[in-house]
Design a protein that fits this description.
Elements: E1 9-13, H1 17-27, E2 31-38, E3 45-51, E4 58-62, E5 74-79, H2 82-91, E6 109-113, E7 119-124
Parallel strand pairs: 1-4, 5-7
Antiparallel strand pairs: 2-3, 3-4, 6-7
Length: 132
């Protein structure tokens, strides 16, 4: 049996960590959770994490340590008002995808991409029902 207990850190590869932090914090309104240097010399790096306010899970923004191209990742986040969030981001000048889903078991959602081509799917959070 596994000892893994939760999904805690998703990772995106980015070309420029400072630019990525600006997009996620200034444009999307997320929080900077961690920004620390590690290692020395040729192995020195920087660990950067961002997250939506109140989120337990974080998104690490890493440069490609293996020389691969940035981008190509995808992650889903939940919003209590997908339509309102889409409108807010569109008004802020973010290129947003069309609304999709919202019928049957598929939640309403749209996508937005960062400058490196990583995709964030904004998905309608399930309704909170009071416990009986």
């Amino acid at each position: 049996m596994t000892s893994v207990t939760s999904l805690a850190t998703a990772m995106f590869t980015v070309a420029d960590q400072d630019a990525a932090v600006g997009f996620y914090t200034d444009t999307l309104g997320w929080e900077l959770r961690s920004d620390v240097a590690f290692g020395e010399g040729d192995t020195a790096g920087r660990w950067v994490e961002v997250a939506p306010p109140g989120s337990v899970a974080v998104l690490a923004l890493n440069v490609a340590w293996d020389g691969s191209a940035p981008g190509g990742g995808a992650v889903g986040v939940e919003a209590t008002d997908v339509r309102g969030e889409r409108d807010r981001l569109e008004q802020a000048g973010v290129a947003v995808g069309e609304l999709m889903g919202g019928e049957g078991p598929v939640p309403l959602m749209f996508s937005v991409s960062d400058a490196d081509g990583n995709t964030i799917w904004v998905v309608q959070a399930p309704p909170v029902t009071p416990e009986a």
